[in-house]
Amino acid sequence: MTTEEPSEPRPASESPGAPSRRALIGWGGAGLALGAAAAGGAVAVARPGEDGAAPAAGAAVAFHGAHQAGIATPVQDRLHFAAFDVETDARDAFVAMLKDWTAAARRMTAGKAVGDGAYGGLAEAPPDDTGEALGLRPSRLTLTVGFGPSLFDRFGLAGRRPEALVDLPQFAGDNLDRARSGGDLCVQACADDPQVAVHAIRNLARIGFGKVSVRWSQLGFGKTSSTTPEAQTPRNLMGFKDGTRNIAGTETDRLKKFVWVGEKDVDADSAWMKGGSYLVARRIRMHIETWDRTPLQEQEDIFGRDKGEGAPVGKAKERDEPFLKAMLPDAHVRLAHPDSNHGVTLLRRGYSFTDGTDGLGRLDAGLFFLAYQRDVREGFIPVQRNLATDALNEYIQHVGSAIFAVPPGVRDADDWWGRALFSSPDTKG
Question: Is 336 helix (H, G, I), strand (E, B) or coil?
Answer without folding.
Answer: helix
